Amino acid sequence: MKIGIAVLGAGRWGVNLIRNFLKHPNSQVLAVVDPNLDSLAAVQKQFNLDASVILAADWSQLQALPGLEAVAIATPASTHYTLAAAALKQGYHVLAEKPLALNLTEAIELCQLAEKQQRQLFVDHTYLFHPAVDRGQTIIQQHRLGKLRYGYAQRTHFEPVRHDVDALWDLAVHDIAIFNTWLEQTPIQVSAIGTVFPKQEGRGKKEEGINKEVAAEIQNQFASSRMTANHSEGLADLVWVTLTYPDGFQAFIHLCWLNPDKQRRLTVVGSLGTLIFDEMSPETPLIVQRGNSDWVGEENNSFESAIAPQPTGLRHREVLNLESAEPLQRVCDRFLNSVQTNTPCPTSSGSASVELIRILSTLSKSLELGGQPLIPF
């Protein structure tokens, strides 16, 4: 039996959710909600939706829709908490775009509400379902990089500029989630510094296919939550993050939405090689750069190496083969499975998302304090 779903938000990401749920054999899209009537018309035309699919400008029109079992939320971040809470209270399973909420208290509250209602709260941390992240985790777990030294990531682009969250909350969660997954650890200390740039008139008025005015309408309609911690001068456009893990590994993340050089790259450096996940290289998204920066002998116990260590300058680039799969399709499939079995997904459960929000909240505090290192609270 197919699971009836309503998608809230018909912007860039909402359209992708609609596409995946329409083609999945275990789901039925019953409704799409967006206050922007042009977006609803575009969705109807793009997918040639059946007349039975309700196109609504107001979520309240669907709250007692027959056959509705689950809600997928792809609206501005500041609306996530209110929408998810309302859906859970009415007995619906929830798939929420990241971040689940904009403060730790609300994220925990949503988890508790889902448990009370015996409904699944699933957060769309899409990168954790990426074949490159799966393969990268295997490479690290097999110790093929040797001793892990440090990591760094760049996640930058030239717009969209958000109006309800800063670059930290918009972008950092992806790389933090990947580092945590690959290292099988969470940071014990974090810090962040940021910069707010003057905005040009007319710049950054669109976000996720919903313009600034419509985003404000959504926030008013759903009495949205607000960030409780942010840069004192406004929403930071450029943020530098440092994560320190229990074993001493450090990760450095560059985040910016005013960078003409779009980057989606994450690197882990080890004594025997470097693992590089570069989403902007579709033909070679995951590679291992062989070789090490040590003297031969540090990782080699042979007699010859011990008596005659030599520096290694040679590098060998190994392109790793990956399964052909769309990460978001995997997200939708796993969500539907969680709904059918009413069991949480360890990768993207609400409780897993809470830990990421805990880190983001602490980073926001560090940002406010000018980069002071803090222990995630």
From TrEMBL:
Its EC number is 1.1.99.28. The keyword Oxidoreductase applies. GO terms for molecular function: glucose-fructose oxidoreductase activity. Residues 4-125 form the Gfo/Idh/MocA-like oxidoreductase N-terminal domain. This is Glucose--fructose oxidoreductase. It comes from Microcoleus asticus IPMA8. InterPro entries: Gfo/Idh/MocA-like_OxRdtase_N, Gfo/Idh/MocA_Oxidoreductases, GFO_IDH_MocA-like_dom, NAD(P)-bd_dom_sf. Keywords: Oxidoreductase.
